[in-house]
Amino acid sequence: MNNTRIIAPSFLASDFLRLNEEVAMVNDSAAEWLHLDIMDGRFVPNISFGIPVVEHIRKATKKVCDVHLMIVEPERYVEAFRMAGADRISLHIEASPNLHRSIQLIHSLGMQAGVAVNPHTPVDSLQDIIADTDYVNLMGVNPGFGGQSLIPHTLTKIRRLRKMIDGQGLQTLIQIDGGVTEENAKEIFEAGANVLVAGSSVFKAKDPKKAIEDLLKV
Questions:
Q1: Which residues are catalytic?
Q2: What is the domain partition of the chain in residue ranges?
């Protein structure tokens, strides 16, 4: 079992009027990744930000930029986000009819490749692609909006996915995106997750850096 533990603050919950300060805070924290949610208003019912914002964040940090593409036809934009500074890209299995080809493209551009999975999609659908991925982004909420509560069944999906990964002797990371709080982080880690994407629980905290440390210490 891969015992890696990483916190990835989700900038969807950050203050965009103070974006440089928010990046500086994460730079000075125990978080290893910056999670950047890209929404197109089509795959999900919301629009977030795009390539220019990723470019500016990249200039302000040396930490991992983890780009989550919640968009239709994500393969069309992989190279553009690489040019913008992405280190890792996850794209949705539900939006990628040629998923293996898209993962190969991400790898060919020198990035780590992740597959994102909506709450209704069974982890069994990853059986034939898991060995080609570096991480799986399990959605703990329905994608599109921050501040939602974790869907309880997510814990069962983490355990099933952990069994699949360990059964194949892989080092694939399990990322949980949505609904992560200090109250449930311990249970999520213990179920087998490695990377917690935390938005409101970090950026809305009185002391965001302490909130990140507390998530790691659970």
A1: 37, 177
A2: 6-217
